[in-house]
Design goal:
single chain; 198 residues; mainly alpha; Hypothetical protein af1432; 57% helix
Length: 198
């Protein structure tokens, strides 16, 4: 194993922490208020885990779901975060496959093969792939609702995401989110915050 090649790969993946999601600029959301691609991947992984549970996917298949969620945007280190308008002008599937092949080319063979196979599985119609795709859409929609509640014109994008979702669980979560007045602080509503917050 060439440790320098592994380190180069990790260095590339960590650059996702500094790459802001681009689609929000179409709604005049400043970069300081946009999540990074790494933030998005983190959200997708957590949402995918919840969807796997709610959709009653056997636990032995959760590993593939989480791994697909983790790598689903890896090619964006080379392509940038392509929003929907940008994808009208490029062959996204072909470009992302080539970027991933190049990205993993110098990794140990078995790891390279596993990552490429997971990427192919993500393009399939499997239940695992559908969960990751729904998690990707749901993460976008939840962020759109939070931004809408801050005054940006993103609510319609969140609502239209319902039509893209395939799993019952993802649809139910988004329908519930659309009813919330302040999604960003929903988790604090049932907490007893008493005394000094420090």
């Amino acid at each position: 194993m060439n440790v320098r090649n592994v380190l180069a790969y990790l260095s590339e993946i960590l650059s996702l922490c500094r790459l802001a999601r681009s689609g929000w600029r179409r709604f005049d959301v400043p970069e300081s208020e946009r999540e990074s691609v790494a933030d998005h991947v983190f959200g997708v992984a957590h949402i995918a885990l919840i969807l796997a549970y709610l959709e009653k996917v056997p636990k032995e298949r959760w590993g593939d779901i989480l791994l697909m969620a983790l790598i689903h945007d890896n090619p964006e280190t080379r392509l940038g975060d392509l929003d929907r308008i940008a994808t009208l002008y490029i062959r996204r599937k072909r470009a992302t496959q080539q970027a991933l092949r190049d990205q993993v080319a110098t990794l140990p063979n078995s790891l390279k093969t596993d990552l490429l196979n997971l990427s192919k599985k993500l393009e399939s119609e499997s239940k695992e792939a559908q969960i990751v795709k729904d998690a990707d859409v749901l993460d976008f929609a939840l962020h759109a609702l939070i931004l809408a509640q801050r005054g940006y014109r993103t609510r319609d994008s969140a609502k239209s995401s319902l039509a893209e979702l395939k799993t019952k669980a993802a649809k139910a979560i988004l329908r519930e989110a659309l009813k919330e007045e302040n999604l960003a602080t929903l988790w604090t509503k049932d907490l007893e915050l008493t005394g000094d917050p420090r």
